[in-house]
Design goal:
Quinone Oxidoreductase, Chain A, domain 1; 16 strands; alpha/beta; binds NADP nicotinamide-adenine-dinucleotide phosphate; 326 residues; seven-stranded mixed beta sheet
Length: 326
Amino acid sequence: MKALRVNALSDDLSGVELVDMPSPERAPGDVLVRVRAASLNFPDLLMTRGDYQFKPEVPFISGLECAGEVIETDPDSGFAPGDRVMGGNKTGAFAELASLPARGLSRIPAGLDYAQGAAMGAAYSTAYTGLVELSGLQAGQTVLVHGASGGVGLAACDLAKALGAKVIAATGVVDKRDAIDAACSPDSVILAEGRFREQVARLTDGRLCDIVFDPVGGDIFDESTRCVSFGGKLVVVGFTSGRIAEVATNIPLIKGFSIVGLRAGEYARRFPERGAAINAAIAQLAEAGRISPAIDRTLPLSRWREGFEAMARRELVGKVVFEPSA
Ligand SMILES: NC(=O)c1ccc[n+]([C@@H]2O[C@H](COP(=O)([O-])OP(=O)(O)OC[C@H]3O[C@@H](n4cnc5c(N)ncnc54)[C@H](OP(=O)(O)O)[C@@H]3O)[C@@H](O)[C@H]2O)c1
């Protein structure tokens, strides 16, 4: 089968190679999936460099999530051959076949194709866990979403809108504003640069935001501590800026807000019933047509480099989807 293998860690993707390799045997308890589509996430890029918190030993097959059909499974796995599933296991998704634990898979919501299924899973479960599960998002609240053009950022905008929030989408790239607007119809799109609190204050009549969802970190996090209302939540999602911010603890005390650490995958592993409830809630919204993932481009896996480089250069608005058999 064709698979995208990381042979060695590198900062320029030179250690990554599309290879022909033997098909995987189904591991005990796993589900063997024929991958129809797989989506790129920021951690996939970080893992090629050894910069992610999870550091698989090289060589490994890249790809933390995919969608496809079940080929082979145990009768008690909850799945049957032919089922359309989505999910993953941190690595192994960028291949024609993947042996994946049943607990990491769920059914593709009705009405979504394989590309949408692959693009939905991690982004929407991250958004749902951060906004709803950990921050108690309510209709009518105001949410500021940073890195709004990203997979997770667009999912957070789309989900918050669907749940009746007022959404301020924030991007660091001025040229992306129209595309973000078209992808998820937020209430406003702002350029998050310098002292963006003044823009946020103007858009909220001085009330600021109930929730700030931050996949970027660094200077964006620093200024975001000035954008959360009393009783609000500042959700730490990631550090795409490359800098992990530090905060003086008197700031959340004086301003009366909470800093919420998000680890969506780990949350679902530690609390499997909550993980299942989150997946069910997302599926229901998707099947009702109230949310749908934004896909920037779909590429054959042979053009993997184009997708990885576009992500590294911060060019994307939405997800990159690879098709291993195209
Ligand atoms: N905590 C969790 O449970 C969890 C789960 C999944 C992912 N994550 C994290 O969430 C973050 C986003 O992941 P993703 O898959 O959505 O990535 P992505 O699609 O590449 O989106 C990241 C966005 O961050 C913004 N950004 C700001 N500075 C950047 C820089 N120097 N380089 C690249 N992008 C930059 C960009 O948005 P603009 O150009 O619009 O500003 C970009 O679109 C990552 O840090 C990832 O590790 C966390």
